[in-house]
Amino acid sequence: MVKVRDPVRSGVLDLVTLGVYGVCWYFYVNRELASLGRARGRAELGDSPGTSLLALFPGLLLIVPAVISFRNTVRRVQAASRLAGREPTISASLGLSALLLLVFPVGVWYVQRELNEVWLAEASANEREAAPATAS
Predict the structure, then answer these.
(1) Cβ(90)–Cβ(70) under 8 Å?
(2) Furthest C-alpha separation in the chain
(3) Residue 117: CB partners within 8 Å, gap ≥ 6?
(4) Is 50 exposed, middle or buried (0-12, 13-18, 19+ CB in 10 A)?
(5) Phi, psi torsion values for 44, nearest 5 degrees
């Protein structure tokens, strides 16, 4: 099940908890993307949120695994946007990976903002599919 989170609150919680919320958030976001990928048969949305988390922590000590993990997570968000019928507004540039690495609360806000759009588009599409056809 996916969760629409307030992007500002997510960034602030990461800051206030000194990164503990951010680590949990990162795991949950990757788990939600992997679940969507399994439901839709799309492997590019990931399959192991635990591996993404390990690349973040303790991989952050080596920097490179964390940057690769951040970039892959953003690419998964882009793929989910396209799957939901939206043009992604988030960039998988190295700059975003650096932002996530250096100013994680801002990166959390940025990624969560895009994810909320994906989840709302998915919910809207599911409602359209579930709505019974009206007879004229």
Answers:
(1) no
(2) 63
(3) 81, 86, 89
(4) exposed
(5) -70, -5
pTM for the full predicted model = 0.82
Tokens 């303790």 sit on residue: 58
Spacing of C-alpha 128 from chain mean position: 24
The answer to whether 77 and 86 have CB atoms below 8 angstroms apart is no
Cα 104 to Cα 2, 48, 78, 87, 107: the distances in Å are: 21, 21, 19, 24, 5
User: What are 51-86's pLDDT values in tens digits?
Assistant: 888 887 776 677 788 788 888 888 999 999 999 888
Q: Quick check: 82 and 88 in contact, CB under 8 A?
A: yes
